[in-house]
Design goal:
2 domains; disordered N terminus; single chain; rod-shaped
Length: 239
């Protein structure tokens, strides 16, 4: 009985909201028909304000694995530590940077052009539970703080390496492609709902074009990460 009393006002409120929304949409359609139909530029402006209110949009998430090594020598003794650290990186679009000048409607082609700010990287969010540390030990590690120093150095290098991997051409291209698709859908849906079934939305980055690709899973296994780290170290040694 108590649950019914609680649910009844909520149900009535939902019905009232639905009726008000229906009346508002119906009134907007009537006004549009009286004054020449809906204005696509007004719809685009409304969509723009709605997107700006979201602030930041996560368009892509990828996981990387970094393998770093550090060594130290003192008094003829040496020790080495290796860290394998996975981390997740988010690719975000700062929608608050979108301005009215970034949205242009071309009446002839019925196309809405949207200029986007570039994708930004957030993170990495390192996965400490999956991290692995290995060391050669020895007297230097036993009687000094060399092990702690090397661990700190490895963690700093690993975080920097994860961010460098995240900035690679392939993940940035995938993130930009995902961002374009998300923005195009957000602008296209209100236009189509207003009757512009033939309207097109084209979102582009300033000076940065990302090719379409169907490869979305770029997670890296430990084995591949180790092999890639050795390849990078070998390449750096040849410079």
């Amino acid at each position: 009985m108590d649950r019914d009393r609680i649910r009844l006002p909520l149900l009535i409120g939902a019905v009232v909201v639905a009726l008000l929304l229906g009346l508002a949409l119906g009134g907007a359609g009537l006004v549009g028909s009286l004054f020449g139909g809906p204005d696509p530029r007004a719809i685009a402006t409304s969509s723009l304000e709605s997107m700006r209110a979201q602030n930041r949009l996560v368009v892509f998430v990828a996981r990387y694995v970094s393998v770093t090594s550090a060594s130290q020598s003192r008094l003829g003794l040496s020790t080495e530590r290796t860290l394998i650290l996975p981390g997740d990186v988010r690719y975000e679009l700062d929608l608050s940077k979108l301005a009215q000048d970034d949205v242009k409607w071309d009446k002839g082609s019925k196309t809405l052009f949207v200029r986007l700010p570039d994708v930004e990287i957030a993170g990495p969010d390192v996965d400490l539970t999956s991290a692995r540390e290995y060391g050669s030990g020895g007297l230097l590690a036993t009687f000094t703080d060399a092990e702690q120093v090397l661990d700190q150095a490895n963690r700093a290098k690993a975080v920097a390496d994860l961010r460098n991997q995240a900035r690679g051409d392939v993940p940035m291209r995938l993130a930009r492609q995902s961002a374009r698709q998300a923005v195009e859908r957000s602008f296209a849906m209100p236009l189509k709902a207003a009757g512009f079934s033939n309207a097109k939305v084209i979102a582009r980055f300033s000076g940065k074009e990302a090719a379409d690709t169907s490869v979305w899973d770029i997670s890296t296994s430990y084995e591949n990460a180790v092999a890639e780290a050795k390849r990078r170290e070998a390449a750096q040694g040849q410079k």
